[in-house]
Amino acid sequence: MLLNPINFYSPQTVSEALSLYSSLGECRLLAGGTFLLNSLKLLKKKGMKTVPNIISLRKIAELKGITTDPETLTIKSMTSITDLYNSPHLTDNFAILKKVCRNISTNLIRNMATVGGNLTSRYTWTELGAPLIALDTKMHFVGSNTKEEVTVEEFFNKGAKTNNLLTHLSIKRDKKCQLSYQRVKKLSEVDVPLLGACIRSTLTDERFQQTKVVINSGTVFAKRDIILEEFLNKSEIEESIASEALNHLDLSIYDTRSDDYKKSMFRVCIKNAILELVQRRKKL
Ligand SMILES: Cc1cc2nc3c(=O)[nH]c(=O)nc-3n(C[C@H](O)[C@H](O)[C@H](O)COP(=O)(O)OP(=O)(O)OC[C@H]3O[C@@H](n4cnc5c(N)ncnc54)[C@H](O)[C@@H]3O)c2cc1C
Q1: For a pocket test of ligand 1, which of 80, 168, 192 has the largest count of ligand atoms closer than 8 A to its C-beta?
Q2: What beta strand segments (E) does the chain contain?
Q3: Does the Cβ of 132 fall within 6 Å of ligand 1?
Q4: Index of the ligand 1 atom closest to the CA of residue 30
Q5: Which part of the chain is CATH 3.30.465.10?
Q6: Residue 184, burial from CB neighbour count under 10 angstroms (0-12, 13-18, 19+)
Q7: What strands, in cross-sheet order, belong to the sheet with 207-216?
Q8: Is the CB of 120 under 6 A from ligand 1?
Q9: Helix, strand counts (H, E) of the chain
Q10: Residue range(s) in the chain whose domain bears CATH number 3.30.390.50
Q11: Is the pLDDT of residue 18 over 90?
Q12: Contact of 59 with 50, CB cutoff 8 Å
């Protein structure tokens, strides 16, 4: 199905994009297009109105790329999932992103879909949210006269809404923490996730410390399980903790609109994530 007629703008700089964004009124930003174009076609199919203007971010070179220094990893919003996966900068705590990207859909989608689109599309099941919350990631936005910096956690807690342009993400390097990411796919034909779980912890003195447990349930935005975090932070690094931890879940997160299969797969993912961290610690 063809889209309704639109005015298509393709600025080459962020400032050009922002002046179009504030002057055009009814418009949408286009990144990889894997969600937006589909949703415009669906609206048309339902006989609903679609925006008359689209501003493509594809030609804006300053929104692409990944850089690093000893302290920080910077991921520009128009970086594709494939480019993130292939980045040589994914070392230390950043390495978990390689595992997450490898599991996102297919090559075709990964080549087009962007990191910025994955976070700002407002689909609750896209999966970069959980690992990026575990990594304490900050999102950097610009508007015509504003600059805003929020953590991914704050962004999702407030419903993932923005009227600004996401320019980049920044993540602090942490050589001490360990991360595990587990996910279950929803369908055999199209690879979209049913759920995901990311656990980050600093495993020193035989204890879990500064633990973050972030759950992506697919039905609400990624959320931390503070009850499980508190339990783990009081626990010794033993394999038996992986089973015991299942008695310390914040059930309100896992039970939301979950059937028995999903509830049980949450438990499998949590247990596997903890076991992975414990076994990695033992090898160190
Ligand atoms: C078949 C299929 C399978 C998929 N499987 C997975 C999966 O397994 N795991 C997963 O995590 N995701 C999956 N996805 C989602 C995919 O990762 C998203 O489609 C993608 O991340 C959206 O990115 P995009 O660049 O195409 O965004 P677009 O479709 O271009 O835009 C999406 C929304 O984000 C807004 N936006 C984009 N960039 C910015 C920005 N810089 N600033 C402000 N707003 C912005 C746009 O205005 C639009 O509202 C799948 C998608 C499809 C179609």
Answers
A1: 192
A2: 7-9, 27-30, 53-56, 66-68, 72-76, 138-142, 147-151, 165-172, 177-185, 193-204, 207-216, 223-224
A3: no
A4: 30
A5: 64-172
A6: middle
A7: 177-185, 193-204, 207-216, 223-224
A8: yes
A9: 12, 12
A10: 177-283
A11: yes
A12: no
CATH topology of domain 64-172: 3.30.465
* Per-residue pLDDT reduced to its tens digit, 120-131: 999 999 999 999
Distance CA 31, CA 246 (A): 39
pLDDT one-digit tens code per residue, 173-195: 999 999 999 999 988 777 889 99
Cβ(165) – ligand 1 distance below 6 Å: yes
| Ramachandran angles phi, psi of 245, nearest 5° | -60, -30
Domain 177-283 class, CATH top level: alpha beta
Residue identified by tokens 């979209």 is: 192
Residue intervals of the chain classified under CATH 3.30.43 are: 7-56
The pLDDT mean for the chain works out to 95
182, 132 contact by CB (below 8 A): no
More confident residue, 62 or 258: 62
For ligand 1, say whether the CB of 191 is within 6 Å of any of its atoms. Answer: yes
Q: Among the residues of 31-181, which ranges form H helices?
A: 36-45, 81-86, 96-102, 107-112, 115-120, 129-134, 152-157
CATH architecture group of domain 7-56:
2-Layer Sandwich (3.30)
**Amino acid type, 239:** E
Give the H or E element holding residue 218: none
Burial class (CB in 10 A: 0-12, 13-18, 19+), 257: exposed
Amino acid at 115: V
Q: 14 CB under 6 A from ligand 1?
A: no
Please compute, for residue 61, the number of CA atoms within 13 A of its CA located in the half-sphere on the CB side.
0
